[in-house]
Amino acid sequence: MHKTSSLSELGFDAGDASSGFFRAVADGCPLTPTSSSAPHRRLTKVSVIGAGNVGMAIAQTILTQNLADEIALVDALPDKLRGEALDLQHAAAFLPRVRIVSGTDAAVTRNSDLVVVTAGARQIPGETRLNLLQRNVALYRKIVPPVAEHSPDALLLVVSNPVDVLTYVTWKLSGFPASRVIGSGTNLDSSRFRFLVAEHLDVSAQDVQAYMVGEHGDSSVAIWSSISVGGMPALKSLRDSHRSFDEAALEGIRRAVVGGAYEVIGLKGYTSWAIGYSVASLAASLLRDQRRVHPVSVLAAGFHGISDGHEVFLSLPARLGRAGVLGVAEMDLTEAEAAQLRRSAKTLWENCQLLGL
């Protein structure tokens, strides 16, 4: 008996079916499917800029998940960098065969498929947010153009905070299309959101569909209207079974999600493992062309009432593949959620305008 393997065999015209769910970013790639038979280089190279706690957690997770054939580490501190590279190389007998290289010069990143940027200036006590941003722009002027020159076809994934503004900075300095410049955004925030809901309902976080969008920071927006558990809308059920799920309670949960990183930093001094796994999940979707949807920082101009003239990056659910951002989901937001998102975008755009890029 012949088994149906696709909806097109049932009479549905496949065409570009995804266009009803996703829309391309302003200067990104079209949503036409890429040929699965297109030739790909056999070896995959990932470079990590910044060998601090976050950068090394990302490198280690990418290494153990066998996402790359070569990993290049770049940092301004040669001794620390050499030590981190050796520490990973000495584990070669227990890991997939991966070439690990390191250097203080961007040349070591040549021909990367994915470049993960974790480097960033730390805030000095008493320093203004604007001054910190300007110092980061100065740092990124030294990092991004050489990386773009050595790997003109790479995908750029920004992790440093403030991630939305620095993703904008990276886009401007690289000259790459917006579809190939991505910020880690609220991918981890959404995981924290899913974890809290899953713990409350005693289910796996993988069965909870919930997104934090907007800024990765204090103005992020929890999309309660679309939260689901096991495919079932969850907010009404939660409210029906728990009278305490009023607007104040929902805001308290959102604040708990936003404050999750601060709690970890207060306890151990920094965050590393969760962001490592978060970025590895993004790397897998990108490098393996998985077409998975992640809430990441993308060029949001024209979405949900954000002005076409505001070249602001913030997190929206985006379909990721080998070409980068393949489309952004057309979410059905409530007016309150959309208004919060626009306020978040306004704040970010005001910061971007001060940078003079």
Could you explain how this protein is built, in words?
There is one protein chain. The chain is α/β, with parallel strands linked by helices. It has helices at 53-64, 78-89, 129-150, 163-174, 187-201, 235-241, 247-258, 260-268, 273-287, 335-353, and strands at residues 22-23, 45-49, 70-74, 99-103, 114-117, 155-158, 181-183, 208-209, 212-213, 221-222, 228-229, 232-233, 292-299, 313-321, 324-329. The chain has two domains: 41-183, NAD(P)-binding Rossmann-like Domain (Rossmann fold), CATH 3.40.50.720; 186-354, L-2-Hydroxyisocaproate Dehydrogenase, Chain A, domain 2. The chain contains ten helices and 15 strands. The strands form four sheets. A six-stranded parallel sheet has the order 4-3-2-5-6-7, sandwiched between helices. Helix 2 (78-89) links the parallel strand 3 (70-74) and strand 4. The radius of gyration is 21 Å and the shape is globular. The chain starts with 21 loop residues before the first strand and ends with a helix.
Question: Main sheet: which strands, in order across?
Answer: 4-3-2-5-6-7
Order of helices and strands: EEHEHEEHEHEHEEEEEHHHHEEEH
CATH architecture level-2 label of the largest domain = Alpha-Beta Complex
Whole-number tally of structural domains: 2
**Distance between the ends:** 62 Å
GO molecular function: L-lactate dehydrogenase (NAD+) activity
Pfam family, one: Ldh_1_N
Domain Lactate/malate dehydrogenase C-terminal: 186-351
Subunit structure: Tetramer that arise from random association of LDH-A and LDH-B.
